[in-house]
Amino acid sequence: MSISPRITQRLMTEQSLASMQAGLGRVARSQEQLTTGRTINRPSDSPSGTNSAMQLREQITQNAQYARNADDGVARLGSAGTVLTSMTDSVRRVRDLALQGASTGSMGVQAREALAMEVAQIRDGLLSQANTTHLGMPLFGGTTTGKAAYTKDAGGVVTYAGDANPVSRRIGAEDNVRVDVSGPEIFGPDGTDLFTIVAEIARKLTADPEALGVELDRLDVALSRITTSLADVGSRFNRLETGLRTNRDAGLGLQDSLSQIENVDMARAMVDLQMNEVAYQAALGATARVMQPSLLDFLR
Amino acid sequence: MSGSFSSLSATLSALRFNRVAMDVAGSNVANVGTEGYARRNAVGQTEGAPAIPAMWSRWQGAGNGVSLGAVERMVDPFLDARARIEHGNKSFLDTRSAALVRVESTLGEPGEAGVAAALTSFQQGWADVANNPADGAARSQLLGRANTLAVALGSQARSVTTEWADQRARLDAAVTEANGLASDLARVNESIGVATVTGTDAGLLLDKRDQITLRLAELVGATSTLDANGVLKVEVGGALLVDGKRAGSIAVAGDVGYSPTAPGSLALTVTDPDGASQDVTGSVKAGTVGGQLDLLRGTLPTYLGRLDAFAADMAGRVNTQHAAGYDLQDPSQPGSDIFVSSDGNPITAATIRAATLDADQLAASSYVTPSGGPTLDGSNADALATADLGGGAYRRLVTGFGAEVSSARRVSESQSVLTSQVDAAREAISGISIDEEMVNLLAAQRAYEGAARVMTVIDSILDTLINRTGVTR
Question: What is the rounded distance in angstroms from the CA atom of residue B395 to the CA atom of residue B245?
Fold first, then answer.
């Protein structure tokens, strides 16, 4: 403000008032930044900063969601892996039993029946493992709304009740990872699936042990199908874990960028506040001294 | 040669003048805080030889004392005109800036409570449904979030329309005040005319006139001019409002509540003292009313229009994608609308609502079973979670508004500085300095004492002349 050639008391009062107001305004701004901890409290504080902050916030939440998706997928694939590993053991056991039964010379009928019994039980176990659920949904049933991936009819024939739709988890904008394995992929198509093979072995152990060789070959194919699925599950599991780590790291980076744009530099804000306070106090002091004297004090 | 007694009357004139000077100084001090009071100055005028020399007689005096020439009002009409312009601009900018700041504070951006956050959380809700389409909790949560998004948009639209209605009411109040001032001004002008003719002091009336014209400039950006005959004319947006002692009026027409058509129906007309009306809606570019018209016809409807466009676009994208999926309840039908309009018209930010749906009616799946039954697929939910729902347009809207607010505030601040400089310049001329008045008072006091002394001297020489003449002892 320029100083006019003729100064009046009122002019000084008004100018002092204006500069005190301005000083107090600056103190209030520093105080707002310190109490909210943010430099951008409204879009007009920094329109371009607002744009970045809004974008970053969106990315941060998206990123957190990707991490949650990956977490969920890891759990699902993890339980699929566990089930498949245990099924591999069961299938190996069936193979051992079938091999024992195939050596026709060394076995009596009763021993063979015991073998057949065990194989039949393992088959029930395999079936119930194939029907394992994850969060109430069959793990190997695709996107079916039913409660089981495989159903067994009165005659003991097992059929696939699920569907072939993939179940995926999004772990990045362009990264959608499949987190399921459908029944037929693991156990083979209906009619020639693992359960049919195992049932056939159980039947032939007592009825036709010499012909077990064909079933053994088919069992080997089924076993390799399971192990292939297992390897597939494992590699997808790793991909999800990597995705999870990447997302968490990216989340930290994004959070950091956001706070650089939005958050206040405390040290600097404190110094600013101090400076503004000093300036305000100076304005108050100067006003108090300048407003006091007048010619009236000196006239007698 | 003047007579001795005429010397007494010359001294008397000095006593009189100095008393007036002390009165004027006293009145200045008394009015040091009076709004609109301009400093007065008593101007003395020497009584002496007549200005026109006479042909057959000769003035032989040597100073006949002093008389009061005039009591000057210390004002600069050009500076006053400048002050009116700057005050008009200042109130235009202040009105705009204050309203924009108010609207901005209700946006809640950037932060966790705004529309952007609601939109992100709505899409997150879809991602949760995609993760577990069978989970009723995730589906209910999504419905809740759709509602939150609709409410966030509605409350933003409401805060803008509330500001609109508020400014509309203030516009009425400002115009009413301006009309009152216009008729006051006409009366004051009439009194000034009478006072000028009768030769009485019009200072008080002139103070009043300057005050009214300044206030009219602040309210409606009125420009005031004195014509060659001393008649004051006030124009608003190019139309004559006050012509000397005759006043016209200003009227506002248009809806008082916000509707998409309300901004267009808004009209400001000035009826001049002769009764002719002129539409000045687009030509008032200063004063509170100018700022209000700019907000009511430009800034606020533009913002609302873009917010409405975002709401409609977002709802359209969600509904279209949703219709591409199948729900759990009746997969034979495409997914029903998530967002609907509360009044059956196309969706706007104010009318957007989340449709009342069952959790099972959310079409998360892209597949049906061969027999047309539901599946627990989440592909459509994933598509909705990752779709571009126009968040970028909203971001541009908010940052554009932020830039407008920040520039409005900056311009308003610099205009404040300019205005206060002009005010300071006016104050330098018209303002009262107590020190100066004290000095004037002292000077008049001393002059009065001096004149009294002169009177004593003349009294003394008269005494000598009357009582001592011829007395030798």
Answer: 55
